[in-house]
Amino acid sequence: MKSIKELKLLANDNRKRIIEMIYRAKAGHPGGSLSIIDILTAIYELDVDFKNEKRSRVVLSKGHAVPAQYAILNYKGIIGDEELATFRHVDSRLQGHPHIVDIPEVDSTTGLLGQGLSLAIGMAMAKRNDNEDNRVYAIVGDGELHEGQIWEGIMQAAHYKLNNLVMIVDYNKLSSSGPVNEVIRVDSVSDKLKVFGFNTIEINGNDMEQVVGALEVAINEKEKPTAIIANTIKGKDVSFMENNPKWHSGALTDDEYKIAMNDINKVREEI
């Protein structure tokens, strides 16, 4: 396993890949991709072995953040550098949401918010029935908690005690409609999930040490599903994007691209 410093450096590289993709495509969702990249980087390094057919799976329920997933698959050699440059182009495999038919390694096709957790629950139940000793991770947006299907899934996962399911809430407090709690209040998420019957962990989702610690707890949980409430910053490490709802989606100008890459390089120097 990589050290915490190595994971931080890898996440930093993945942030550059995200910005590069969206800049070239002149479209995409940078804010939520940057907020979850620390978590996704750690999951794929700690618990996803692409050489193993019966491996842990990752369902990106907030599918619009797929640049984060593509960045990791590029690092893993599954998506080449030339193909990465085709993000959102006509006839490219790399569309704005993950599509399992084109890229099996994304593990699920997602896009309609609320459905990814249900897919992950089905996968987790199948793995348990087949006595597979690995996990299914579902990455859920905090704005996605406004969807009723999420709460139906939470009830089901707890009822069946799916100890191989790890639900991660990207709690960056902003949705496409503005501040999440101004649309519909979803605060006290950790307390709610505890009542439903989840092993609940609340962390700083952009602190790699805390991320790794939470994932290790989840991997060792034997009694119930785990929920990691990851407090993150939308647009993390890009100065003009951080906590700015404008950057839920959007294209970067040449100047904004230069600033973004410079910001990320500065963070790298501090690691």
Explain this structure.
The mean pLDDT is about 95. Strands 1-2-3-7-6 form a five-stranded parallel sheet, with helices on both faces. It has a two-stranded antiparallel ribbon with strand order 4-5. The chain is globular, with a radius of gyration of 17 Å. The longest helix is centred in the N-terminal third of the chain and has 22 residues, at about 5-25. The protein has about 270 residues and is an alpha/beta fold. Helix 1 packs across helix 2 (about 30-45), helix 1 packs across helix 3 and helix 1 (about 5-25) packs antiparallel against helix 10 (about 255-270). It contains ten helices and seven strands.
H/I helix tally: 10
Mean pLDDT: 97
Specify the structural class: alpha/beta
State the share of residues found in helices, binned by percent: 40-55%
- What's the Cα radius of gyration? 17 Å
**Strands, count:** 7
SSE arrangement, N to C: HHEHHHEHEEEHHEHEH
Low-confidence stretches: none
Strand arrangement in the largest pleated sheet: 1-2-3-7-6
Sheet having the most strands:
5 strands, parallel
Tell me the distance between the termini: 18 Å
- Bin the strand percentage: 5-15%
Shape: globular
Summarize the structure.
This protein is of the alpha/beta class and 271 residues long.
List the keywords.
271 residues; alpha/beta; globular
Provide the fold topology.
Blueprint: H1 4-25, H2 30-47, E1 57-60, H3 66-75, H4 81-84, H5 116-129, E2 136-141, H6 148-159, E3 165-171, E4 174-175, E5 178-179, H7 180-183, H8 189-196, E6 199-204, H9 208-220, E7 226-231, H10 254-270
Parallel strand pairs: 1-2, 2-3, 3-7, 6-7
Antiparallel strand pairs: 4-5
Helix pairs in contact: 1-2, 1-3, 1-10, 2-3, 2-9
